[in-house]
Structure formats: structure tokens, C-alpha cells
From TrEMBL:
Keywords: ATP-binding, Nucleotide-binding, Transport. The keyword ATP-binding applies. This is ABC transporter domain-containing protein. Residues 7-256 form the ABC transporter domain.
Amino acid sequence: GKPDPILVVDQMTRTFGGITAVQVEHLEVQRGIITALIGPNGAGKTTFFNLITGFDKPSSGRDASWSFDGRKLDRTSASRVAKAGMVRTFQLTKALSRMTVMDNMMLGASGQRGENLAASMIRPLWRSQENQVEEKAVELLGRFKLHEKRNDFAGSLSGGQRKLLEMARALMTDPTMIMLDEPMAGVNPALTQSLLGHVQSLRDEGMTVLFVEHDMHVVRHISDWVVVMAEGKVVAEGDSSTVMSNPAVIDAYLGAH
Ligand code: ATP
């Protein structure tokens, strides 16, 4: 169909010392579809996620600019990005593992990453929330079949349940676009289908999905569009069969294996 970009990124660079992690000239993510971001280890995918969601800042030098849903997002904090409707999942950190599933959900509502927050800091935050927020958490935990686990420590969940929780907590802010960081990593094959089904349902409900994934079966199975990154740059994009048969992609991608 006609292009309808929800996210537009221009001239985004991030260097760490001498390493250029991200060097994106132009990238668009189209509304309402599932886009996969693939590329070898160290290609800059995670750094790119951090940059567009306000958890990291581009290096100065060139004028990076990006907009989401028609709103300029450069120089905006992570919580404002979440309010604008774009959230990302985070792999469960140590601190989050020591919190209950429900505390993780309530933290999700704040749009914060929470890696430096202890449970004792979450509780007051939770008390200050409206009942509505708690209701939403309960509803999402039901949807992702985690309701019975609500009082368990997140660290006690299986790999697949953790991924479900990561998704559920990101949905607490009612995003229009969700960014999933390796949603299938460490997931038992029995739960893979169910997770894929959840991702497709989000898309079918009108949400835009951008995900980073190393498992090419997963990428082929659910992506409407694939963007390939290597050495911080977008090197190819297209529908999955076109991209996967592109010799430059095979080179860049298989180079890492
Ligand atoms: P993977 O698929 O392994 O997760 P990736 O595509 O997500 O890799 P990044 O994690 O974004 O890649 O890393 C891109 C480059 O930036 C790598 O060379 C990495 O070592 C470097 N890098 C990322 N974060 C930092 C940091 N905080 N300090 C220094 N270098 C970093």
C-alpha cells in the first residue's frame, strides 16, 4: 500500500570512543505492520533502539532528527517518548527479577526502565496510581496468562514467561508502537508459537511492531518488512523473501557466524 511512516529517522550517529555504533542516514518504519530489524552482533540494533526511545543520546556532529507519529522526538526524555506512544521492552535485569510480576507491571505504567529502582521505591509509586492502572495490569496479565504468577518474583518465571511479561509491562502505557528486543531469545519451543501469536495479534489490533531478532525462522514467519543493519548502517530492506535472498545481506549477515 501507500507508505505511511509512523517513525522517521534522519542522520542519527552514535559513537563510543573510536567505535561508530550507529550511523543511520534515513530510516522509516511504516504504521500498522511488523518490521524486523536484523543484522550481525554489534551491528548497532540495540543502540538504535536506545536512541529512538530516549534512553541514549546521539553523538553530536551531525544534526540527528527523528519524529514519531508526526511529533519531533529528538531531545526528548524516555518517559515523554513513552507518553508519545512508543515503548520498548527490556530484558529482565537483576533488579527487575527481584520484584514481583505485579510490581513489574506497575513500573511499566510509569514508562521507566527501572534498572536502578528497588521494589521499595516502586510501592509508593504503585500506591499513587489510580485503580484503573491496577485493573489494566490485571487485564494484561490475564491476556498473557501470567495472572497466577502476579505475586511471584519475576526472576522465577521461565524464559518464555519472562518474554510475555516484558511485552505485558510495555503495553501498560497503551503504546501505538512497541519495540521488542529479541522476543524469542531463550524461549522454549512450546511457547514460541504462543509468543508469535501475541505479536501478530498486536499488529492485527493496529499496533506498529518493530523487533530485533536473530532467529531467521521467526523473522520469516511474522515480518511484513525487514530492515538489515550492518556496522551501524541500513544496508538493505524489503519484504522478508527479497531481503533473505539478497547476496549483500547474506554476506553481511553470515559474516558474523
Ligand atoms: P547484538 O545483536 O549482539 O545485540 P547489536 O546489533 O545490538 O548487537 P549494539 O549492542 O548496538 O549492537 O552495539 C553496537 C556497537 O557499539 C558494538 O561495537 C558495541 O560494542 C558498541 N557499544 C554499544 N554500547 C556501548 C557502550 N555503552 N560502550 C561502548 N561501546 C558500546
